[in-house]
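During the reporting period the student researcher (J.K.) took over the structure-prediction task from the postdoctoral fellow and processed the backlog of single-chain submissions. One of the processed entries is reproduced below for the supervisory committee.
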Amino acid sequence: MFDTVLIANRGEIACRVMETARAMGLRCVAVHSDVDAGAKHVAMADAAVCIGGASPGESYLRGDVIIKAALDTGAGAIHPGYGFLSENPDFVDAVEAAGLVFVGPGAAAIRAMGLKDAAKRLMHEAGVPVVPGYHGAEQDAAFLAQQAQQIGYPVLIKAVAGGGGKGMRLVDSAAGFADALASAQGEARGAFGNPAVLIEKFVTAPRHIEVQVFGDGTRAVHLFERDCSLQRRHQKVIEEAPAPGMTLEMRDAMGAAAVRAAEAIGYKGAGTVEFIVDGSDGLRPDGFWFMEMNTRLQVEHPVTEAITGVDLVEWQLRVAAGEPLPCAQEDLTITGHAFEARLYAEDVPAGFLPATGRLSALRFPPQLRADSGVRAGDVISPHYDPMIAKVIVHGPTRNIALRKLAQGLAQTQVAGTVTNLAFLGALSRHEGFARGEVDTGLIGRDLAELTAQAPTPAALVAQAAICAAGLWEVAPALAGLTLWQPLARTVVLEHDGEEISAVLRVISAHRIEVTLGEDLVLAERIGAGWRIGGGPAPELLRDGQTVTLFHGGGAVFRIIDPLARAAAAGASGNLIEAPMPGRVVAVLASVGQAVQAGDRLAVLEAMKMEHTLTAARDGIIAELLVAPGAQVEAGAALIRLEEEA
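J.K. obtained the following structure tokens:
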């Protein structure tokens, strides 16, 4: 067996692979871009090689440079992780031509499943059920519209080389087909260099259930199913295993179909066969259809590991070294239930926009498995996916596991950037989800409820004000006393866009009164801790002029100095600004053009996703401040409207 493995990836998956490889006694080599020189995966490795600039095209997608790094450091194998080069058959060929072992399937298997249309034809021939649709090579817009009409609306347009929801559009009627097709093809061309699409019937009550398979090139086994139906914009949010409501009959049918799919292409290593399932009338053996096969380790593989007790990365490394399958199908069993929640740096109220920032705090409770590629002090970069961690729990039953997830999320502490932590907490407490009533439309239907922001309790505001005044850690005797009377001190905070004035009166070293409008909150120090408004105070962190209270996903307060504050510039609505760092893909307006509120003006690519920027009001385009291809920072002015009359 090789004694050194190079991990051709970054972030949490690079760290995850290293943990198992090191436990197996293997030496680990990391590769990194110049901005990742101080990253966690680099610190974990035995050796590290810089492979280029910040963008993936300058570093993590440079297969030739990665192979040279492996040869130079004495690595005998390359593990691709997921994403980047993990499903690139040309890279697999190059790795093997260099005399190295690729930890994954062969190039032929990746090519067989790389294009969705060809894969579906192959699966149909192998006896795997396939969704009705058009998977041919003809890409004429009128022809595709005719095919969609024959299939019957609603239909799903999908990039044949797609993944991660890119190049995918749901179309409800013929009226919207042309625009959706052009948009999907444009996104597919930019993301994959291939604008080709396929058309499929859209299942109206769909569930996304996938089966983990593992092969040795000849035989394959399945490690049961995962339900990945809880999605937002085709991106998975919370995954679980096994699938709620699954019957033994359907599990056997899906598992057998997945094994047929893997064995039909001589699959080697870990892979996932994804199925779309009709959940409108329970789970039925005749109600699932092949969607695609991911020829790599999946992001959500930890839930399968939790219920089977199998380390999938260990299996990958052993089979890549020439060992046969570690066990037979009858040796695999399910124990309990597991969930995985994806913690991202993203601004939920702003429409889940990816975010950046330095993590001033990142702590997880001990009952969670947290797979993360970042630490407190690290920066969430605009160059890569903004995932902070995968939070995984396991319990003897689904109800217990879900309660553990909700509790673990509530106890997770993250500060320094906005995150989806509160949103994940709301999902874990969702009554329908708790009952197992899961389909891919759940988040969309209940988005308002899941993103609703409850009023911030006065006790939290009072606690933030005390911290802002410098009195949280130490309240010295007689602090604030003058002429034997408590001195009133005003602290000004900003929270959720609202300015708050708090008046503090230090009664003693152990007692502070905080007045918030009509509310009076009493803070008392008891022993080494505080009680606020009669209840225990949550932990907090002050980082410069920001106070974060670890409650409900994190309540963030900005300290305002009234004497130093300049008058804020009025928001005229004349400028369309970049909401995050990114690259301008397209400018859709021209100088002198009349636009209406909501009109599409530009497209920005950031965090591997495209974001459409629209006009905030009716007006006339006065100036275009950027051109397509420009790299811009957050807040950069892109388009200016004429002043309102």
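The committee noted the following: Residues 49 and 386 are 23 Å apart (CA to CA).
J.K. will present the remaining backlog at the next meeting.
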